[in-house]
Amino acid sequence: MTLRITIPRETRRASINLTPIMDVVFILVVFFLLAAQFADEMSQTLLLAPQGDSMGTETAAPAPARLLVEQAGYRLDGEVLTAERLAEALGALGGRSLAVEAANDAPYQALVTALDAAGKAGVGEVAIVPARPQGDGR
Amino acid sequence: MKPLRLPQPVRETFADSTLPLINVVFLLLIFVMLSGVIRAADPVAVDPAISTAEAQSEEFDDDRTLFVTANGAVAFRGMTDETEIAAAMALLYAREGWEAAILKADRDTPANRVVDLTLALRRAGVARLVMVVEKAP
């Protein structure tokens, strides 16, 4: 009697060693992670009023509303506003132009936020004016 | 009777276990390549202010950009002196017909510093200023 045993043959597929390609791809990933910048940049255009007059040439137009940018909030014509209420107040300005002024301790971010709000509220003309000395009646 | 033990074939597991990993890493590579932008680093460290305005993403020419760091230091084409920069920017603005000068200031820069710079640029003859801001996430 013969004993028949079939041993499955080891199936050896032709395989490429993938380790080197992995190394390269990993290095590529690390390179792109380090070199790429993910911040999305855009622009905010500001028209600088002509020389001399800080508010430009419109003399017949109503006096511009004055927005003072402070560290903690905003002051529109003397009225204290939070960032949330700013857009609403600016929307109520109607056709008046806006003169934006920054307090000494205000960061640039607060100024950009104010310009954003003015843009969203549809304020026609926005000018950045130099800060007046503190304590001039407001 | 004792069972006959036959040698089991050794299975090749190497390729099977690394293939998914390679797929993931390739996807990661493609994601990073698509979502990031390769550009030269700023000459000085600047974290631009964040804006919620809806505008298109843009790329800005570093050669036309005035950088302002958080402590108020300025940089433009390797120059760091403010009056020199204002003069150079105004000259280039007029001569090369720029439609706008570009200002990239750090979000923590004192706002008054930026205001003073814009006034200096205006005095030098720049009428249109583009402020570089970062799109809010």
SSE blueprint and pairings:
The complex is a heterodimer of chains A (138) and B (137).
Chain A: H1 19-35, E1 36-37, E2 41-47, E3 65-69, E4 74-76, E5 79-81, H2 83-91, E6 98-102, H3 108-121, E7 126-128
Parallel strand pairs in A: 3-6, 6-7
Antiparallel strand pairs in A: 3-4, 4-5
Chain B: H1 14-35, E1 37-38, E2 50-51, E3 65-68, E4 74-75, H2 82-95, E5 101-105, H3 111-123, E6 128-135
Task: Explain how this protein is built.
The complex is a heterodimer of chains A (138) and B (137). By secondary structure, chain A is of the alpha/beta class. Chain A has a domain at 47-138: Nucleotidyltransferase, domain 5 (2-Layer Sandwich). Chain A has helices at 19-35, 83-91, 108-121, and strands at residues 36-37, 41-47, 65-69, 74-76, 79-81, 98-102, 126-128. In chain A, helix 2 packs parallel to helix 3. Chain A is rod-shaped. The N and C termini of chain A lie far apart (115 Å). The relative contact order of chain A is 0.15. The model of chain A is unreliable at 51-58 (pLDDT under 50). The termini of chain B are far apart. Chain B has a domain at 50-135: Nucleotidyltransferase, domain 5 (2-Layer Sandwich), CATH 3.30.420. Chain B is built from 3 helices and 6 strands; from the N terminus they run αββββαβαβ. Chain B has 137 residues and is α/β, with parallel strands linked by helices. In chain B, a hairpin with a 5-residue loop joins strand 3 (65-68) and strand 4. Chain B has a 5-stranded mixed sheet with strand order 2-6-5-3-4, covered by helices on one side. Chain B has helices at residues 14-35, 82-95, 111-123; strands at residues 37-38, 50-51, 65-68, 74-75, 101-105, 128-135. In chain B, 36% of the residues lie in helices and 17% in strands. The model of chain B has no long low-confidence stretch (mean pLDDT 83). The relative contact order of chain B is 0.17. Chains A and B meet through helix 1, strand 1, strand 2 and helix 3 of A and helix 1, strand 1, strand 2, helix 3 and strand 6 of B.
